[in-house]
Amino acid sequence: NLSGITSMSGGAYFSLALRNDSTVWGWGANWDGYIGDGTSIDRIEPVKTLNLNGIVAVAAGEYHSMALKSDGTVWAWGWNGDGELGDSTTTVRTTPVKVKNLSGVIAIAAGSRFSLALKNDGTVWGWGQNSNGQLGDSTTIGKLYPVQVKNLTGISKISAEAISSTEEKPS
Questions:
Q1: Beta strands of 5-130 (E only): which ranges?
Q2: What is the pLDDT of residues 23-42, one digit of tens each?
């Protein structure tokens, strides 16, 4: 009975949908709150993500979720073991939290345990796992908050892929 869908995104074992009323809905595995309904109960039918309105984009990562609000702020929830929620912690969140120190965002992308944001000035920012330098900050040290990708300006689109390397939830 979910209608008015404007976009969708799929994570490792769950899906997110953005409705034309700017609400977010999720279903599937919910081990660490990927759906954002305040629980870790798997959902076989879509349920509304709590405490979100004015959403213009969604992104599902391997084990976390993101939403972009019309005011240019980013919200995230789910697994956070590598800081992919950008709230300066590694605490799992079953409801959305605001990504710290980030505004003016026009696009988001969620990868395998890391996140990206494109700001309206054409710069790209990343946070979370960085073991292979995926944050582009000249280090391989993970970040619990957004850092600017070096030497990138004038960017108009971003993407990240969320590939699950295991059949089990993260530990």
A1: 5-10, 14-19, 24-28, 43-48, 55-60, 64-69, 74-78, 93-98, 105-110, 114-119, 124-128
A2: 999 999 999 999 999 999 99
